[in-house]
Amino acid sequence: MAKFFAVTILVIAILSAIPIVRNTWHPVEDISTHGQAIDDQLSETMWEAGISFLASQILLAWLIWRFSSNRAGEKTKSFPGGAMGLVAAAFILVGVEVLALGIFGVKAWANLYFTPPGSDAMPVQVQAGQFAFYFRYPGPDGKFGPIHADKISEASQNFFGLDPDSDPDAKDDIVTAEMAIPVNREIRLLMHAKDVSHSFYVPALRIHQDFVPGLDLQIHFTATKIGRYEIVCSQLCGLGHYNMKAYLDVLSQQDFDDWLRKEAAMQ
Amino acid sequence: MKAHYKTAVTTCALLMLGFGLLYSTHKTINVSAAAGGTITGTIKLDGTPPHQKPIDMSKEPACAKEHASNPVTTETVVVGPMGGLRWVVVYLSEGLDAGTASQVPSETPTWDQKGCQYIPHVMALDVNQHFKVSNSDPHSHNIHPLPAPNGANHEWNRSQPPGTPPFDQVWAGQEVAIPVKCNIHPWMHGYLAVVKGPTGVSDANGSYTISNVPAGTYTVTAWQEVYGSQSQKVTVGAGKPTTADFTFKAK
Questions:
Q1: Which domain holds residue A78?
Q2: Distance between CA A92 and CA A265 in Å, rounded?
Q3: Which of A167, A174, B1, B103 is placed for a possible disulfide with A145 were both Cys, Cβ 3.0 to 4.6 Å?
Q4: How many domains does chain A have?
């Protein structure tokens, strides 16, 4: 009976591993400069988890096969060191595995979050509000004008609550509903939420950052491939969350300059 | 026995007579067009209107495509080629007799959502007049009127998926005007002006007409969403048109 059980465990382990290996889902093509480390981390985790799973199931099946017995009077075998030994071994094995993943992952995280942007990174501001993203470019003066929450008026497209008549820095600010960036240029993204929590997620850029109401957050990245990508809100923010998105256009420097000029004319 | 029978019949007859008299004095709902005068006029803007910004609807690709060749702009101040101011609500703020004020038109106008815009941008309704909210777009909208708090009108918002039939709504109190927004599409904006009595909304040339106005003296008020209200007194003769023009000053 026990030997049958051992075989069953082995069969289940192999049969569940086969479809997972055959239907591996690959993330979209990475167009960022920092994303390789994240993709490597994902691969390593999948390999390590898969091998650990199969190894542990095979070991379990072998132990059952080897040490099971129907004969009366036979003493039960126990793990060397007893219960304490077993717990210690499990602790060490699992602990080492998790620690290894953490150490390898920390480098990918630090590369993105603990490394400051370059001094010539292009600043773009994004405001997340139910249920759209709006973007602001500082204009030729390179400065963002102050935001006045009481001046926000969606009816007249003043999404940031700017007051160009009183604030000279706000005069040349360019507010857009789409985000365009030049390719191969580092971008410094300034983020804040107008109301509740949202999230800025561009899968191809390997950027996934929550907006926390009350916090001014900054992330930086560089896109390496021209194209049109979706920015989707990935933090449930209300009944329109399913529809909350904007488009990211990665353009050549020339196309970007033309686009920015066109948007400035529409302010 | 016979006495009771007599009392019963007499009481019934008296009751029927009484109700008959009551009903004969009850005012009819239908408005008699022949008895009313009209007030017409033109509304102009003096000065340069504020720049109306083009609306980027890229977040909703179906609407972005619909307006690709003809982009829409904000509609806070819409001025025609001859300086006529559109979307101004004109109504009778004083002078309406109780009878006319309590009449409710039987028409149910439609407040439509099409191309991610409210059509019309401003709609005038009577108090307790039913209207229909419809969604002509291939995606959901969430209509959200924002009446003033602590008033007779209560705030509500309602999702309307595509293909669903229009739903019926009504406002209980006078309010000029209730702003309406869409929770899903932040650029959508419109107004519902709820007023007792007949009203008019100025067209692309700034012209308006208020029909079915009984003869009398009134204060006519014009309201625009940016420039607020202006009033003037008019006297309406039965069956004759009266003119009341307004000019708003651009700030």
A1: 2-113
A2: 64
A3: A167
A4: 2
Question: CB–CB of A233/A245 below 8 Å?
Answer: yes
- Name the residue facing A240 among B56, B179, B184 (closest C-beta): B184
Contact criterion met (CB < 8 Å) for B60 and A247: no
Condensed to tens digits (0 to 9), the pLDDT of residues A188-243 reads 999 999 999 999 999 999 999 999 999 999 999 999 999 999 999 999 999 899 99
Give yes or no for residue B27 having a pLDDT over 70. Answer: no
Distance CA A253, CA A182 (A): 5
In CATH terms, B35-249 corresponds, of 3.50.50.60, 2.60.120.560, 2.60.40.420, 3.40.50.1000, to: 2.60.40.420
Given the cut 0.90, state whether the ipTM is greater than it: no
Both A72 and A198 in one domain: the answer is no
Model confidence, pTM: 0.81
Compute the distance between CA of residue B124 and CA of residue A167 in angstroms, rounded to an integer. Answer: 38
Same-domain pairing of A49 and A129: no
* A130 in the same domain as A101: no
Determine the Cα–Cα distance for residues B206 and B241; give it in Å rounded to an integer. 17
Q: Which of A82, A113, A144 is the last residue of a domain?
A: A113
Greatest alpha-carbon span in chain A: 95
Q: Which of B59, B60, B74 sits opposite A156 (nearest CB)?
A: B74
Q: Are the CB atoms for A205 and A198 separated by under 8 Å?
A: no
